[in-house]
Design goal:
Layout: E1 2-6, H1 16-24, E2 30-34, H2 35-38, H3 46-55, E3 58-64, H4 72-81, E4 99-105, H5 124-136, E5 140-141, E6 145-147, H6 155-170
Parallel strand pairs: 1-2, 1-3, 3-4, 4-5, 4-6
Bound molecules: flavin mononucleotide (FMN).
């Protein structure tokens, strides 16, 4: 089962993220949890979120980049759902071996994420905390999908990215642990 954790505070104004989500919504064995719709007051149903995660083989985090990170709701979701002794720590193995795919959109164009660009760092620098969040919980980090320049790319470019995302999910099969192997130390924390 594929679980999409979707966090966009203004879905009605979303162009890039919405196209990505709509491209995959009808795939079989896929559940979408749009956190801002489910929890307008930020009062996350932890048991329901954990149950959805337990059902999933692949967890997709889909959101726009906000201040080099995730929107507040997704950060809150990590804080209250990825609990000690559930996601990590003693016996905390509920996410272990599940795959994680990060799908994000940014306002900054590809060239802006470089030493000489306005964001001064390669985009990989901002991937690191997300990747480590997954690895710390024993998940397998898949190659992310990042759509840069979300405000300037054409409808055709967004359409192509959406189609590629659909293809990626439609053909997704778990692969054996490889270079991004889950961190075996995580459970000892
Ligand atoms: C509060 C806020 C913070 C943002 N921070 C960043 C940022 O740090 N880097 C960046 O490239 N874009 C940033 N953006 C732009 C969003 O990433 C962009 O609007 C979004 O990816 C577009 O996708 P959408 O069409 O699905 O809304 C920010 C936008 C907002 C509203």
């Amino acid at each position: 089962m594929i679980l999409i954790i979707h966090a966009h505070p203004y879905p009605q104004h979303s162009r890039a993220g919405r196209a990505l989500l709509e491209a995959v919504r009808d795939l079989p064995d896929l559940e979408v949890r749009s956190l801002y719709d489910l929890y307008p007051d930020f009062d996350i149903d932890v048991a329901a979120e954990q149950a959805a995660l337990v059902r999933a083989d692949l967890v997709v985090w889909l959101h726009p980049i906000y201040w080099y990170s995730v929107p507040a709701m997704l950060k809150h979701w990590f804080d209250v759902v990825h609990l000690r002794d559930w996601a990590y720590g003693e016996g905390g193995d509920k996410l272990r071996g599940k795959h994680c795919l990060w799908v994000t959109t940014s306002g900054g164009e590809t060239s802006s994420f470089s030493e000489t660009g306005v964001h001064q760092l390669p985009f990989a620098a901002f991937e690191a905390p997300l990747r480590q969040t997954a690895l710390f919980c024993g998940m397998v980090w898949e190659t992310p999908i990042v759509l840069h320049g979300a405000h300037v790319i054409t409808e055709d470019e967004i359409g192509a990215a959406a189609l590629a995302f659909r293809e990626r999910l439609a053909t997704w099969r778990p692969t054996p642990l490889a270079s991004s192997e889950a961190n075996p130390e995580a459970r000892r924390c």
